[in-house]
Design brief:
alpha+beta; Aminopeptidase; 7 strands; 33% helix; 35% strand
């Protein structure tokens, strides 16, 4: 099986994962593209993720993305509506980018949301200037539903594009 075709699995984050996730922040270009705070030290990132893993906010489900037994990213399902949540995902270490892991992580997040949480709709947004993320959401069958606020991505003014997919469309395999 080609490396990029290997599936990913999701699991709850463990306390030791905080060190791995914080380690991704050692790469300043990763921080910049992932829109992580550039002023935080690695120690601050470790403390932040340890706290988040130990005591997540009630409206956040964050799961580790695992491939080949290694934590390669995480998926978020965020929100407090009973049948609708926002999908987010991060793939750590830029050396893993471009291998299809973002799409695999997004698909695993949608599967989890629709099968485990019985959600009816999942939405997401990506900055228009971040075309990799936009293409991932489109490839998952998510339809563009609107335009969000303005932001800056890699020093470029941009805006958010909002996408959504229903359980019916996801489960029908229209992606």
């Amino acid at each position: 099986m080609h490396e990029s075709a290997k599936p990913v699995t999701l699991r709850p984050l463990h306390l030791g994962d905080a060190d791995v996730i914080a380690g991704w922040a050692a790469d300043s270009e990763f921080r910049r593209e992932a829109d992580w705070n550039p002023g935080r030290s690695l120690d601050e990132y470790q403390r932040f993720y340890r706290r988040l893993i130990q005591s997540p906010p009630p409206d956040l489900i964050r799961l580790g993305v695992i491939r080949g037994g290694i934590l390669v990213g995480y998926v978020d399902l965020h929100g407090d509506q009973p049948h609708r949540r926002e999908l987010g995902f991060v793939i750590g270490e830029r050396s893993r980018w471009g291998q299809g892991l973002g799409r695999l992580a997004g698909a695993a997040g949608l599967d989890y949301g629709f099968h485990q949480l019985a959600l009816r709709e999942i939405w997401a947004e990506a900055m228009d200037a971040n075309q990799r993320s936009v293409r991932i959401l489109q490839s998952l069958g998510m339809l563009e539903i609107g335009r969000g606020g303005k932001d800056i991505f890699l020093d470029q003014p941009t805006h958010y594009r909002q996408f959504a997919i229903t359980a019916e469309n996801w489960l029908a395999g229209t992606h």
